[in-house]
Amino acid sequence: MLDELIAPLQARASSALDHYLPAATLAPERLHEAMRYAVLAPGKRIRPVLTYATGAALGVPLEHLDASAVSVELIHAYSLIHDDLPAMDDDDLRRGRPTCHRQFDEATAILAGDALQALAFDVLLGDGTRMLPDATRLDMARVLTHASGSLGMAGGQALDLAAVGHALSLEALENIHRHKTGALIRASVRLGYLAAVRDDGGLEQRLDRYATCIGLAFQVQDDILDVEGATEIIGKPQGSDADLDKPTYPELLGMDGAKRTARALCDEAVACLEVLGDGARTLALIAEYIVKRDR
């Protein structure tokens, strides 16, 4: 059932990304090749799928969601390129392939990340969102800039780097991942809500809480997979968090405690969707997928 609902959205996201990315034959060819390599690698496409699923639950045509879905995935891809660099996590493997700086070189990887960030906003404010009011498009840009900046994803990465080698409280660990992982997931859902051009504060709050819960659950499951997953399945080196001496949920809560936390977050997320009835079926299945995935 999940594949039947999610796979078409994943395929749509990949097709839209391919459409908006510059051709590898367009100068500067090496930079564009690196951008496409990083973005079009096999991935879960959770963030654009969330944008599509949220908008669809509110009656928005999928073609009205392509640009915002693409923009959030481009931001995610740029963050992965930079996170993998030697100055950050120094990873050699991403999505089962050499990381961008290993496949190309560090300078090209940095530029590819920079260019993807710029492209995200070019897409978000370009022709693909012309059917939306200008005020809505501006709100979308504000949501994405906030989610990706120092008070969102980039700030979370800074907190994550600062925490290496330190014992953290559960509250401090959650604060890191509300920013590093959760901010962009919340933005993905909010972009879908904004595309509906609705003014429903109660629904907006429920969707934001749903997104907050699955954002934390996503990170808890990532930490679990770093311990229990196999490199060839999860697509990155197993045990890399321990090698980097990063604080994790299994380390803080124990493996059973981490799994209970992921389950509780998933259940709370699904409960937030009750107001939408059957229209939120895909969103509920995404929450389940996040805590059951093996990669």
Task: Please explain how this structure is put together.
This protein has one domain: Farnesyl Diphosphate Synthase, CATH 1.10.600.10. It is built from 15 helices and two strands. It has a two-stranded antiparallel sheet. Strand 1 and strand 2 form a beta hairpin. Helix 11 runs parallel beside helix 15.
CATH C-level label: Mainly Alpha
Q: Report the span from N to C terminus.
A: 19 Å
Compute the gyration radius: what is it?
18 Å
Shape: globular
Mean pLDDT reading: 93
What fraction of residues sit in β-strands?
A: under 5%
Q: Could you give the order of the helices and strands?
A: HHHHEEHHHHHHHHHHH
Low-pLDDT stretches are none
Task: Tell me the count of domains.
Answer: 1
Tell me what the CATH architecture is: Orthogonal Bundle
Number of helical segments with 4 or more residues: 15
CATH topology: Farnesyl Diphosphate Synthase
Helix content: 55-70%
Short overview:
With 295 residues, the chain is an all-alpha fold. 69% of the residues lie in helices and 1% in strands. Strands 1-2 form a two-stranded antiparallel ribbon.
Describe the protein's topology.
Elements: H1 2-20, H2 29-39, H3 46-57, H4 66-83, E1 93-94, E2 97-98, H5 100-103, H6 106-124, H7 134-148, H8 153-163, H9 170-180, H10 182-195, H11 201-228, H12 231-234, H13 240-243, H14 249-271, H15 281-292
Antiparallel strand pairs: 1-2
Helix pairs in contact: 1-3, 1-4, 2-6, 3-4, 3-10, 3-15, 4-6, 4-10, 7-10, 8-9, 10-11, 11-14, 11-15, 14-15
